[in-house]
């Protein structure tokens, strides 16, 4: 109810949509509601828990609401709480340990399968209601000239979506004492369809993808080259899909099938080499560019996948661990000075501190002896720290330790005064970090194939498959073997990005008969005292108009 009220306040623009405090209220109330449902299931499954039941059922939801209001990112980041709450909801009714572990896993699968199906039905029902409301609103407007859009879209639809739809979903979830073991042996049509998806679609795809990763490992060994690009996310998606497939194939009626038996016998062994690749790829990125929240998530995902593999290979596997371990690891990475935000800032600050020390910076008039790569790395670290108030405080401390004055709260990089290599940065250069507005839509219909993320530093070659990127001050050059290349004029592109945001975030080019589109999320621009502007860093997502373009 309170979540619905909060959403209504936001939808009706009673507060600014950029007000972080109000979004924390909405997130906290929504997470608290999920924790409350989980607490109810916990107490239903263990009615004699006493104090633990009171804490989990009543205190924990309130703590979730309060935790979302913690704004000190040095000790807690709340944005993973909604995911943690859903993961806890999935296992909250099945926390007992003992000889009936197999029965607990069967109940876990049964209840979550029921909940997922009824949630899908509730979602479809909401969409049908929304279509009906849209038809009514349009009819009243066209036939009678009545303008009711505010009533329907700002009040009726949010109330149905955030209040009545969840109530309907909760009402359809079966009680725990309604469990019937025959549901896992004599499947209904929904369980049969789910099993078909897992057995004949996901299982062959996963086994084929495992062979691809093994072949890539062999290529790395033969060429003695390190993994690059999106490999980390590719492997994480691979093991996550595998874990989900393992859950789908848990029922006894599925485990009797030949293909399922092969998958369950081989799956966790097949993840060992990909996880080794995964660890190597993440270490390479962290060593080159330091920690960021994105890479912290990769590390968390790797720990989760490695623990699952180890647990199942030593014979202690339990399907309840798949969501439970994920929730625990996310919680650990959200609290304390090691949380994904605080540790990332510490890593970037440490990298910048080392670079300033290596360059001999002892004051605002010192000119460090940096290479192009070192200057680009320092630029990237500073741009990252500028993104938040806590990061600006870290930046202020690091620069102060080297005699450079910077006041937290500045939104440009004028602390670069006097810093940088002699051929790139002079005493009056100002660096601006431009970001693409989160609400800005980019049409990639002409280049529908996603190639992956790509970061490019000035004077530091970057590769993505067969593509090699070289960023100079005003030109981006892309080349492919055996020597074909194309250049993108950044001077003209910069003329369309004169503000503090990326108004035109797209760089387009064609190479080897393939059209590419580089959609930027971030760009660091150096503004010289004579008015000249140049680029020192680009980061975004690469698309192409043909599959296998890399």
What does the model show?
Strand 8 (514-527) and strand 9 (533-544) form a beta hairpin. The strands form two sheets. Strands 1, 2, 7, 8 and 9 form a five-stranded antiparallel sheet that branches. A four-stranded antiparallel sheet has the order 3-4-5-6. The chain has 17 helices and nine strands. Helix 4 (81-91) packs antiparallel against helix 13 (321-332). By secondary structure, the protein is an alpha+beta fold.
Structural class: alpha+beta
The overall average pLDDT, rounded, is 83
Q: Per the principal axes of the C-alpha atoms, what is the gross shape? A: globular
In whole angstroms, how far apart are the ends?
50 Å
Low-confidence stretches: 411-415, 417-428
Tell me how many strands there are. 9
Strand share of the residues? 5-15%
Q: What Rg, in angstroms, do the CA atoms define? A: 27 Å
DSSP summary: helix tally: 17
How would you sum up the major sheet? 5 strands, antiparallel
The helical percent reads: 55-70%
Order of helices and strands: HHHHHHHHHHHHHHHHEEEEEEHEEE
Topology:
Layout: H1 2-11, H2 20-45, H3 51-67, H4 81-91, H5 101-144, H6 149-172, H7 189-223, H8 231-248, H9 252-255, H10 258-270, H11 272-289, H12 293-313, H13 321-332, H14 340-358, H15 372-385, H16 389-401, E1 430-435, E2 449-457, E3 462-464, E4 467-471, E5 475-480, E6 484-489, H17 490-495, E7 506-511, E8 514-527, E9 533-544
Antiparallel strand pairs: 1-8, 2-9, 3-4, 4-5, 5-6, 7-8, 8-9
């Amino acid at each position: 109810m309170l979540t619905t009220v909060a959403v209504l306040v936001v939808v009706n623009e009673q507060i600014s949509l950029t007000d972080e405090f109000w979004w924390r209220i909405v997130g906290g109330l929504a997470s608290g509601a999920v924790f409350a449902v989980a607490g109810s299931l916990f107490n239903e499954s263990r009615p004699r828990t006493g104090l633990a039941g009171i804490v989990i059922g009543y205190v924990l939801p309130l703590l979730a609401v309060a935790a979302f209001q913690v704004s000190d990112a040095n000790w807690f980041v709340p944005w993973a709480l909604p995911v943690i709450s859903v993961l806890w909801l999935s296992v909250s009714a099945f926390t007992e340990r003992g000889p009936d572990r197999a029965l607990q896993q069967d109940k876990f699968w049964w209840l979550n399968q029921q909940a997922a199906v009824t949630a899908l039905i509730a979602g479809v029902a909401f969409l049908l209601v929304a279509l009906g409301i849209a038809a009514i609103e349009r009819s009243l407007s066209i036939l009678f000239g009545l303008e009711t859009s505010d009533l329907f879209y700002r009040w009726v639809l949010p109330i149905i979506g955030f209040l009545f739809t969840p109530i309907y979903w909760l009402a359809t979830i079966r009680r725990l004492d309604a469990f019937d073991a025959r549901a896992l042996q004599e499947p209904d049509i929904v369980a049969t369809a789910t099993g078909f998806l897992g057995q004949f679609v996901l299982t062959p795809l996963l086994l084929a993808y495992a062979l691809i990763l093994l072949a890539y490992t062999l290529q790395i060994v033969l060429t003695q080259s390190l993994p690059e690009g999106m490999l980390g996310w590719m492997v994480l998606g691979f093991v996550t899909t595998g874990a989900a497939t393992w859950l789908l194939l848990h029922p006894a009626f599925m485990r009797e099938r030949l293909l399922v038996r092969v998958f369950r016998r081989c799956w966790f062994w097949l993840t060992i080499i990909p996880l080794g690749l995964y660890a190597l790829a993440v270490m390479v990125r962290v060593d080159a560019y330091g920690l960021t929240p994105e890479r912290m998530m990769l590390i968390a995902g790797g720990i989760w996948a490695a623990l699952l593999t180890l647990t199942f290979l030593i014979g202690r596997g339990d399907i309840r661990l798949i969501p439970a371990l994920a929730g625990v690891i996310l919680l650990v990475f959200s609290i304390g000075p090691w949380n994904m935000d605080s540790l990332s800032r510490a890593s970037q600050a440490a990298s910048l501190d080392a670079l300033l020390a290596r360059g001999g910076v002892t004051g605002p008039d010192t000119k460090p002896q940096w290479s192009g790569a070192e200057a680009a790395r320092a630029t990237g670290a500073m741009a990252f720290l500028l993104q938040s108030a806590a990061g600006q405080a870290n930046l202020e401390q690091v620069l102060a330790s080297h005699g450079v004055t910077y006041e937290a709260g500045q939104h440009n990089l004028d602390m670069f005064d006097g810093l940088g290599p002699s051929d790139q940065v002079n005493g009056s250069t100002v660096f601006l970090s431009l970001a693409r507005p989160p609400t800005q839509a980019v049409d990639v219909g002409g280049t529908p194939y996603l190639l992956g993320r790509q970061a490019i530093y000035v004077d530091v070659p970057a590769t993505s498959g067969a593509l090699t990127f070289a960023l100079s001050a005003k030109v981006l050059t892309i080349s492919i073997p055996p020597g074909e290349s194309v250049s993108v004029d950044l001077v003209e592109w910069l003329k369309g990005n004169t503000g503090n945001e990326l108004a035109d975030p797209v760089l387009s080019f064609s190479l080897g008969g393939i059209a590419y589109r580089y959609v930027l999320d971030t760009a660091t621009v150096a503004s010289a005292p004579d008015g000249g502007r140049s680029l020192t860093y680009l980061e975004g997502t690469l698309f192409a108009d043909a599959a296998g373009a890399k």
